[in-house]
Amino acid sequence: MGTANRGIMSNTEWRSFVGRFIGLFYLLVLMLAAILVLFPFLFSFTGGLHNSIDIVKPGFHLWPEKPLWDNYRDAWERFKLGRLFLNTAIAAGGGVIGQLVVSSLAAYSLSRLKPIGRNLIRAILLITLAVPGIVYLVPRYVVMADLDLIDNFMGLWLPYSASSFMILVLNNAFDQIPKDLYEAAEIDGASEVRMFLNITIPLSSSVLLVLGLFAFISFWGDFLWPFLILRDSNLQTISVRLFTLSRGFSLNLWMAASFIAMIPPGIAAFFLQRHAPKGGLTF
Amino acid sequence: MTSTVTAATDLNVNVTSRRRIHWRKQGVAYLFLLPALIVFTLVTWYPILRTILYSFQEVNVAGVQGWVGFSNYVRMFGNPIFYTAWQNTLVYVLLSLVMGAMVPIALALMINEMRGLSSFFQTIVYLPTLIPITVGLIVWRQIYRPEGGLLNSLLGLMNLPPQLWLQDALLAKPALIVIMTWIGAGGSTLLYLYALREIPTELFEAAELDGFSVLDRVLYIALPLLRHRIQIMLVLQVIIVAQVFTEPFVLTGGGPANSTTSPVLEIYNAAFTRTDFGLASAWGVSMLVALSAFSILYIVFTRKDLDQD
Fold it and tell me: Which residues of A269-280 are buried (b: 16+ CB within 10 A; e: fewer)?
């Protein structure tokens, strides 16, 4: 199994003349890619510093003559970004909790309790994975409306909780847990719930963490479903609100607000980098 | 034969006590499954069935108005937008396969070499995936703006003529694909990177000792070993790109001249702008049929990974 710190080239080759040349080439390309990737972030950051007239002036001007740092405080207040962050956190957080709870319970059942018909259930889950969510968007919306869940966070949490992907991945992860642990606990008289909470969950913590982080990130940026369900402007999430307000405010303030909106995911990315390799998320 | 008879008698002897234990355990098993079953039925399985039913009915805000047989389908196939949307999807898929397949693989190969710096690049490349999508899109709209936008300013600096980008019927789709690659390449790059790291380094060491150049090692060792992963990712990419909605919705509204519209955008229009839920469901079924082939391919390829019991 490969150890860290060598790629396709060995360390000796890396230090050779050809190796250094290739390494430099790679570095340049990656730096270019990094610039391209980061550019929109930089653009919105500096855009936020412009005044409202300069921002729409044609021409290549990145850093304004007089950076208006106040714009950021302004944007925070006028867009009510605090409220937006709260809403988005509630939507995403509740979705993650729902998804983790529902999926881990189901995966525990499929993996350890082995109900009759579990292969059929797994097959149905697999097929569900294959059907694009858009196909049943309309009836799903109607179901939420019938349950009176429009403008209600439950209207987001319920669909978010249904992830056949997570169930199948957790099923696989739970299968790796040695049966002896369960047998020992059974002899000691533990109930299934006890075993679930004290054996399965702690041993799967890294998979749960990584899956949870991925789910959080995807819910944070989600647009279409929150757009349809959360109509009330007090409840809207960041992606929806910044979209609806994109024409209502002057561009420079909007840029400032959007840069602020990009910060929490950046922090999440940092955490993901530290945990993802250990999560054993091999496909 | 005797062994089977003995086995059968053994079973007969034990069957009553086994059955008793069985039921209680089954009950608990299904109890654990219950939340999932309820949720899935409510938000997925019942809606899927409903969609198929709706496609044969006339449905609006007031509810189901009645059965209309195939007339929704007739209207859908009779509308030229249907063919435009699917043609656009084909172009989107092809463009994204070209741009979105090579870029992550190349990036992963390069990041893999960067001792120490790799986690820096990994974080950066994944950042666009994380931001709220509408935010990123509207920033990109500024970049693409015909008058005063960043790209045209850059072109101006190089004395090249400005382009209409998102408002140009020919350029709009590639412009959108660039954005979609920007958003999506990070995740793919990381997945390829993890796959690369699983390749035993002894293979590369041996090849290096045998005199294979770096390019050879990439082409004849790394890529063939990644083939399985690449296939899965490509199939997944087709499925995802075919469902493109947010980019054309936010940036072009399907235009100019319907050059960027997609089936999902048409579903949205039919359902939420014209409240013609029956027609929207017919479109939904068309998506279901079209993507089934690809989805089944995806399942076949990943079965080996998910099915490890």
Answer: beebbeebbebe
Nearest CB among B128, B134, B199 relative to A223 is that of B134
CATH architecture of B78-306: Orthogonal Bundle (1.10)
| 0.90 surpassed by pTM | no
d(CA B61, CA B179): 35
Domain ranges of chain B: 2-54, 78-306
Does A53 reach chain B within 8 Å, measured CB to CB? no
Nearest to A135 by CA among B20, B271, B136: B271
Helix ranges, B114-200 (H): 118-130, 133-144, 150-157, 172-198
- pLDDT tens digits along B260-299: 888 888 888 888 888 888 888 898 888 888 887 777 777 7
Of A5, A116, A132, the CB nearest to B287: A132
CATH of A80-244, one of 1.25.40.10, 3.30.2000.10, 3.50.50.60, 1.10.3720.10: 1.10.3720.10
Task: Indicate the domain borders of chain A.
Answer: 80-244
Q: How far apart are CA A275 and CA A200, in angstroms?
A: 19
ipTM field? 0.80
Contact yes or no for B135 and A41 at CB 8 A = no
Residues 264-283 of A with CB under 8 A from B: 265-266, 268-270, 272-273, 276-277, 281-283
For chains A and B, what is the number of CB pairs under 8 angstroms?
A: 310
- Choose among B203, B30, B174: nearest CA to A8: B203
Q: For residues B164 and A24, what is the distance between their CA atoms, to the nearest angstrom?
A: 36
**Backbone dihedral angles phi then psi of residue A7, each to the nearest 5 degrees:** -105, -140
A135 Cα to chain B: minimum distance (Å): 4
Chain-chain contact of A113 with B25 (C-beta, under 8 angstroms): yes
pLDDT at A135: 80
Query: Contact B284/A33, CB-based, under 8 Å?
Result: no
DSSP code, position A115: -
In angstroms, the separation between the Cα of residue A8 and the nearest Cα of chain B is: 6
User: Which residue of B38, B43, B181, B192 is the best one to mutate when testing the A interface, meaning the one whose CB has the most A CBs within 10 A?
Assistant: B43
Give, for all 283 residues of chain A, the pLDDT tens digit: 334 566 777 777 777 888 788 888 888 998 988 888 888 888 888 877 877 776 666 555 667 777 777 778 877 877 788 888 899 999 999 999 999 999 999 999 988 888 888 888 888 887 787 777 888 888 898 899 889 888 889 999 999 999 888 998 888 888 888 888 888 888 888 888 888 888 888 888 888 888 888 888 888 888 889 999 988 888 888 888 888 887 777 777 888 888 888 888 778 777 777 766 544 443 3
Cβ distance of B124 and A37 shorter than 8 Å: yes
Q: What is the 3-state secondary structure (H, E, C) of A153-190?
A: CHHHHHHHHCCHHHHHHHHHHHHCCCHHHHHHHHHCCC
CB contact under 8 A, A130 and B197: no
